[in-house]
Write a structure and sequence with these properties.
By secondary structure, the protein is α+β, with helices and mostly antiparallel strands. The protein is built from ten helices and ten strands. Strand 8 and strand 9 form a beta hairpin.
Length: 313
């Protein structure tokens, strides 16, 4: 897809003018193309998603959900969501989302105060009434275990730990695989919340004063502990010093304030461990092939500790 053609289209629509530069931005592993657009007066981020080898129909569906969320936010006006200046699904160019240009937060900036600011933000988001999101068709889907998928995940983990012969106890992995079917009983209970679905430090932006969350393809209804768990897990893997116990306690305090209902820290920790176990077992091995021992140990221990807390080891 020619970016110049898309930019000319946006100029013809009166969305952009006086474009100076359009530079590609490399972010994450998603299928969208991201550009930083500089004009005489403002800077923007343009997200483009269209059917391609790196963006199949399932991926397009997730970007369509994000598009609809930004449209919905024109009414909701959530202060921690970047302003969208233009949203369209074009028959030729695909999904176009033009956003306010904000700054990423470097890993070494994530001190405890900034972490708490991010946790406060996601607690506000999680506390929103679910029915606000009915216009974009988000519905709760119970967590289920796919036997074939779990078998493949188990094989992937066997392959990963075999790269570090003698350093991991395979019996622990065997026990987790045998008992992974018990996890949904923790995650499918009430209450359920609106969740970001991909909440981690690299999906948080700043204007120098306030924080904003971005990348809403994973928007879902589920256990809010999944959001804070992913922040802790991904942040730790990035080398950020995170006190999970302190953050979880702070999150429970903020969620209690925003919902007006007491959030039990022990229950939240149980749900976080269930989310951590399921996500780490199901997906992390694929990212840990040929990784060094320390990184593999971080996530293997995370999985094992969650399983011990849930009393399935």
């Amino acid at each position: 897809m020619d970016i110049r053609e898309i930019l000319n289209y946006l100029v013809s629509k009166g969305v952009l003018n006086n474009i100076q530069t359009a530079e590609p931005v490399t972010l994450g592993q998603g299928g969208a193309k991201i550009y930083k657009i500089e004009t005489n007066s403002k800077n923007y981020i343009l997200k483009i998603a269209y059917l391609s080898l790196s963006c199949d129909e399932n991926t397009m569906s997730s970007y369509r959900k994000e598009l609809n969320f930004y449209r919905l936010n024109e009414k909701l006006k959530l202060p921690f969501v970047p302003k969208a200046f233009y949203c369209e699904e074009h028959p030729k160019y695909g999904i176009l989302i033009l956003l306010k240009c904000l700054n990423s937060v470097s890993h070494n900036e994530w001190n405890i105060e900034l972490q708490k600011k991010a946790i406060d933000m996601v607690a506000k988001f999680n506390s929103l009434p679910i029915d606000l999101f009915e216009p974009i068709g988000i519905k709760w889907q119970p967590t289920v275990i796919d036997k074939n998928f779990s078998l493949e995940a188990y094989k992937d983990w066997v392959s990963v730990i075999s790269e570090h012969e003698g350093k991991f106890d395979p019996k622990l992995l065997d026990a987790i695989y045998k008992n992974i079917y018990t996890v949904p009983s923790v995650l499918n209970t009430e209450p359920q919340y609106i969740c970001h679905g991909d909440f981690h430090p690299e999906n948080i932006l700043s204007d120098g004063e306030e924080l904003y969350m971005c990348d809403f393809q994973g928007l879902n209804i589920g256990k809010c502990a999944g959001d804070i768990n992913f922040f802790i897990s991904r942040g730790s893997s990035m080398g950020i010093n995170i006190d999970s116990e302190k953050l979880l306690s702070y999150y429970a305090e903020r969620l209690s304030q925003y919902t007006g209902k007491e959030t039990d820290t022990e229950t939240l920790e149980k749900e976080r461990c269930a989310s951590s176990l399921l996500v780490t077992f199901s997906f992390w091995a694929d990212y840990l092939r040929n990784a060094d021992f320390i990184k593999v140990k971080l996530h293997y221990d995370e999985m094992v500790n969650a399983a011990k807390f849930l009393d399935i080891l």
